[in-house]
From TrEMBL:
Protein name (record): Uncharacterized protein
GO cellular component, one term: cytosol
PANTHER family xref list: RIBONUCLEASES P/MRP PROTEIN SUBUNIT POP3, RIBONUCLEASES P_MRP PROTEIN SUBUNIT POP3
Biased composition (Basic and acidic residues): 77-97
Pfam families membership: RNase_P_pop3
Gene3D superfamilies: 3.30.1330.30
GO BP annotations, alphabetical order: intronic box C/D snoRNA processing; rRNA processing; tRNA processing
Any one Gene Ontology molecular-function term assigned to this protein's record: ribonuclease MRP activity
Domain of life: Eukaryota
Region (Disordered): 65-99, 276-299
Length: 299
């Protein structure tokens, strides 16, 4: 049996070409002034921040491993109790028996840990996004109690993102805007720094935290480990949104207009392209008219 070689598409689009010769065309488009980019952080600062984060996470991996082991043990105990009830009378366990087993060995998603420093850290894109959204809505103090965030959670102070390891990077494209909204709030007394980490940081953070993947990390302002980051963040620019800042004077500086050049393509012979498109529409209409009409049967 001969080997089949998979076909490789090198084009950006796998759609069929129209067969006409095309030429490169540049179109001028206005840049979006409300789109914020990532801060420019030197590579040595990125490496230093990563090393400080790994040092701050000392012992967190053991805590996560112990929590997962305890959760599996409690879940196994509940399953064993349910099996014993079933084997005793040959029937499925009734809801009250299951409830009693759950009361004896309750299953908790996150068991209590003796180390309180774990509450100062947030792992994952979703958790960091929720914290920043809460901070933007309530910038003047601790976060209110909700179903998503525990009560009296301190505000985030540093957000580190493994931008070079995330594919696609659009998964974290919203974080600069959220950080800018937090820093530009009128009642905000605390600032949030955003730092992108070097390539390979995701695997290093996951190993230090005892998790499978860590694409984003946040540390709050009340963490005792934050003192190690103060000198490093002096060279990191703060992201702010000028349109959200309260006006200081009667005049406000306007954002300069920026025009981008978008590279695309167009047919060399526009007349032939229009004729081919018209012929294609006519052929599709004739093909559609030949189809049998649906028969509606009424009772």
């Amino acid at each position: 049996m001969t080997e089949r070689v998979a076909r490789t598409h090198t084009n950006k689009s796998n759609r069929a070409k129209d067969g006409l010769e095309r030429k490169a065309v540049y179109k001028s488009v206005l840049d979006n002034p409300f789109q914020l980019g990532w801060p420019s952080v030197p590579e040595n600062v990125q490496n230093a921040v990563l090393a400080s984060i790994i040092s701050a996470l000392d012992g967190v991996a053991d805590m996560h491993h112990a929590a997962r082991k305890e959760s599996r043990k409690r879940k196994r105990a509940v399953d064993d109790d349910a099996k014993r009830v079933k084997l005793g009378d040959g029937k499925e366990p009734e809801p009250e028996h299951t409830a009693q087993a759950m009361d004896i060995c309750p299953v908790t998603a996150v068991p209590e840990t003796p180390n309180k420093s774990l509450s100062h850290f947030s792992f994952g894109i979703n958790k960091v996004t929720k914290l920043l959204e809460q901070h933007a809505q309530h910038p003047g103090g601790t976060l209110p109690s909700s179903d998503q965030v525990s009560p009296n959670t301190s505000l985030p102070k540093l957000v580190a993102v493994c931008l070079a390891d995330i594919n696609p990077p659009g998964l974290v494209a919203h974080l600069p805007n959220l950080v800018a909204a937090c820093n530009s709030a009128r009642a905000c007394t605390s600032r949030v720094w955003l730092v992108q980490l070097p390539k390979g940081a995701e695997e290093s953070l996951a190993a230090a935290a005892g998790l499978r993947r860590v694409a984003a990390f946040a540390i709050d302002q009340s963490a005792p480990q934050f003192d190690a980051f103060r000198s490093l963040l002096e060279s990191v620019p703060l992201i702010t949104a000028s349109w959200l800042n309260p006006s200081v004077g009667p005049e406000r500086a306007l954002i300069p207009t920026h025009i981008k050049q978008l590279k695309t393509s167009a047919p060399r012979d526009m007349r032939a392209a229009k004729e081919a498109r018209a012929q294609g529409k006519a052929a599709a209409k004739r093909k559609k008219s030949k189809l049998p009409k649906p028969v509606i049967i009424t009772a």
